[in-house]
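__Record contents__

***
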Amino acid sequence: MVRVSESKLEIQMLHDRVLVRLSADEGERRSSGGIVIPATAQVARRLAWGDVLGVGNNVRNVKVSDRVLFNPEDQLEVEVQGEAYVVMRERDIHAVATERTEHGTGLYL
């Protein structure tokens, strides 16, 4: 009988997959007019920001530590050591916020 020890395994993303941690700032928001919008307010489908933790070999435009904009409702969620992450294809990312400036929108986070 082989005993398996509690060793840590490194997660490596494959192909065009991206591993993202949802940003913690999904709570209460303020409108441009100063109105407080509670986290429980019903909002139409809303895109979310997340931090990239890992990328597969075939990912071209996203790097680890970038912030990405995506639709969390259309993605697969995975839990690792009690923390939730999202796994998606690179093509499902709508925008990338990064310090690398090649051709941006002129908007900043």
Summary: Residues 1-5 have pLDDT under 50 and may be disordered. The two ends are 54 Å apart (CA to CA).
